[in-house]
């Protein structure tokens, strides 16, 4: 199956594994770990609110390291978020760009804007974050989905939440 990525020529999964092995367990400072855990808790609580806001039925995919099919695609797309930020290709709200530590962020597959989870930033960038009429294509395979369009799917890795619109075929997990 053809799959869409922001950076198809970069295998972010391989990069992720390499960096993780290179860093080892002991390299993360306790402060960073605590901030990361706080951000993770914040992201988890935001998922419920997002489900309510989107109105559409929502599937939530918990992501682990070894994935196949659509889970693998979601994981690779999640890993493209920090990569895009580092490249300057994805733009964050000021809190994401200036943040001294890990904060929870929301990314949507159809936009290169990401935001922290404050209501203020969510509202400020709503135009860039909300799906527009032309986004009737599946974010993974590109297939056109008849109304009401792709179904919203959310995946979370660490403190990053990704929302993507998927066609019924992709949702089945193949
Ligand atoms: Zn912000
Ligand atoms: Zn699809």
State the main characteristics:
174 residues, alpha/beta, 6-stranded mixed β-sheet, 6 strands, 43% helix, globular, binds zinc ion
Structural features, described:
The protein is of the alpha/beta class and 174 residues long. It has one domain. The chain has 7 helices and 6 strands, in the order ααβαβαββααββα. It has a 6-stranded mixed beta sheet with strand order 1-5-6-3-4-2, with helices on both faces. The longest helix has 25 residues. The N and C termini lie close together (9 Å). The mean pLDDT is 79. It binds zinc ion (2 copies). The site of one zinc ion has 8 residues, from helix 7.
Layout of SSEs?
Blueprint: H1 12-23, H2 30-54, E1 59-62, H3 69-87, E2 91-92, H4 94-98, E3 105-108, E4 113-116, H5 119-124, H6 126-129, E5 151-157, E6 160-166, H7 168-171
Parallel strand pairs: 1-5, 2-4, 3-6
Antiparallel strand pairs: 3-4, 5-6
Mean pLDDT: 79
Q: What proportion strand?
A: 15-25%
Name the ligand types.
zinc ion
User: Main sheet, how many strands, which sense, barrel?
Assistant: 6 strands, mixed
**Straight-line N-to-C gap:** 9 Å
Shape: globular
Rg to the nearest angstrom?
A: 16 Å
Counting H and I runs of at least 4 residues, what is the number of helices?
Answer: 7
The residue ranges in which pLDDT falls below 50 over 5 or more consecutive positions are none
Provide the structure class: alpha/beta
Helix content: 40-55%
The total tally of domains equals: 1
**H/E element sequence:** HHEHEHEEHHEEH
